[in-house]
Amino acid sequence: MGTFFELLLGNMYCWFKSFYSDYLSQYLWGYNPASGTYDLELRYNTIGLYTLIISFVIMALYYYVIDHPRFCKWWSWLIMAIINSVIALFVGYYCVLSDYNAGKIPDELLYLRNKNGEVVQNLISIPSECWNFGISNMIMAFIFFLVLSLLFHWWSRVAKYSPFIKF
Length: 167
Known about the structure:
Number of helices: 6
Order of helices and strands: HHHHHEEH
Low-confidence stretches: none
Mean pLDDT: 88
Oligomer: single chain
Distance between the termini: 46 Å
Number of domains: 1
């Protein structure tokens, strides 16, 4: 399937796989039911990189652009983390829904069919699966924002101790 770094984001998203179906997870891993291999685009990486970039931009806005004494409290950090998470919710939702609308999700992962080709069961229920993946993306964005804050808050002039207390 790939190297460690190619699989890192996918493995992180699998922590929250219980929010959405295994069939959607297989699609996001790049599973091709026609060949039985994982040779399609690894969507976890694409969506994860979007989320990581958005988290980095919002973190940089908070610590280096806004960087104001009145806005360097724990609650202002939490507001920025929530904004980041809500954006990520919609990014996760939109990425899966747009792939569905574009016909990128293989039919075998969407529907269970009988011998006559009639749909017996929906394997991925749209749009609820899109929202469920969006929720997992929202949690990932919060984790990214927290880790990036821990790494980069030291170089801020005013907010270097936000959201943490100076000891």
